[in-house]
């Protein structure tokens, strides 16, 4: 199915693994195209409720494929950056949550890939960084925008301008990742979080993702108005009736699309 990815669906979870360990899972044009295709599959498959994205071997994704980039013209380079940015946007745009299981190096495009995911859980062995200025360029897959939103304007500039690598604990301290676990527990922890989310009303999870992703770029009052609009579909759903009845009856809810 894919040449550069492993793709498997099990118990409602889509497992997507970037599988180029010899190149530390570098994001080539081909990998980006396959990720785009995998995201469509995730969004269109009714059996899939959530996705876990990781890398094969000792890297999550160690960056974009420099061997492809070195001889590009300026216009060609911009086109590759636009392709990468579209894939990162695609992760945010699909209805279903995506969890990044950051198992190792998440550098450059790899850090940008993790940041586009809804939740980031890191192995203690993970390393993060935006080293693009060492190559004479800047992050081009959304890093200059998502990193400051996650860690703050000053820290975002610091990491981008110094190209400093940070470990998982520092990434957790500054808010770049949500959890840090032992390497052997990484996938199990991601599955635990995934199953917790899957137990909730799917229509509410979708609405929450839309409200957060779109509202974070707005002023608070406009964002609250957007939130009010996003509340409409869940409030009109059978899942809302079931969820509230279950709460009052002190039982677990049985949602339609669980």
Automatic annotation (TrEMBL):
Belongs to the enoyl-CoA hydratase/isomerase family. It comes from Candidatus Allocopromorpha excrementigallinarum. It is an enzyme of class 4 (lyase). Homotetramer. PANTHER family: ENOYL-COA HYDRATASE, MITOCHONDRIAL, ENOYL-COA HYDRATASE-RELATED. It catalyses: a short-chain (3S)-3-hydroxyacyl-CoA = a short-chain (2E)-enoyl-CoA + H2O. GO terms for biological process: fatty acid beta-oxidation. Pathway: Lipid metabolism; butanoate metabolism. The keyword Lyase applies. SUPFAM superfamilies: ClpP/crotonase (SSF52096). Pfam families: ECH_1. Its EC number is 4.2.1.150. This is short-chain-enoyl-CoA hydratase. InterPro entries: ClpP/crotonase-like_dom_sf, Enoyl-CoA_hyd/isom_CS, Enoyl-CoA_hydra/iso, Enoyl-CoA_hydra_C. It comes from the Bacteria. Keywords: Lyase. One of its GO terms (molecular function) is 3-hydroxyacyl-CoA dehydratase activity.
């Amino acid at each position: 199915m894919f040449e550069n990815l492993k793709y498997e669906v099990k118990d409602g979870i889509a497992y997507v693994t970037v599988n180029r360990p010899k190149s530390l899972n570098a994001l080539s044009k081909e990998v980006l195209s396959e990720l785009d295709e995998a995201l469509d599959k995730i969004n269109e498959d009714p059996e899939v409720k959530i996705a876990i994205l990781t890398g094969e071997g000792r890297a999550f994704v160690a960056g974009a494929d420099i061997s492809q980039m070195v001889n590009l013209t300026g216009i060609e380079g911009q086109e590759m950056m636009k392709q990468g940015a579209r894939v990162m946007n695609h992760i945010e745009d699909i209805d279903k949550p995506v969890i990044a299981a950051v198992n190792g190096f998440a550098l450059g495009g790899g850090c940008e890939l993790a940041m586009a995911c809804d939740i980031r859980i890191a192995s203690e062995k993970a390393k993060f960084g935006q080293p693009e200025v060492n190559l004479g360029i800047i992050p081009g897959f959304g890093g200059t925008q998502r990193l400051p939103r996650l860690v703050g304007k000053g820290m975002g500039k610091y990491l981008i301008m110094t190209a400093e690598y940070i470990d998982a604990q520092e990434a957790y301290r500054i808010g770049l990742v949500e959890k840090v676990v032992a390497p052997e527990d990484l996938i199990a922890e991601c599955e635990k979080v995934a199953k917790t989310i899957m137990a909730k009303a799917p229509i509410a999870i979708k609405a929450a993702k839309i409200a957060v992703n779109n509202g974070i770029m707005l002023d608070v009052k406009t964002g609250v108005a957007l939130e009010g609009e996003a509340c409409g579909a869940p409030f009109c759903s059978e899942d809302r009736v079931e969820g509230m009845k279950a709460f009052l009856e002190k039982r677990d809810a049985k949602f339609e699309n669980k």
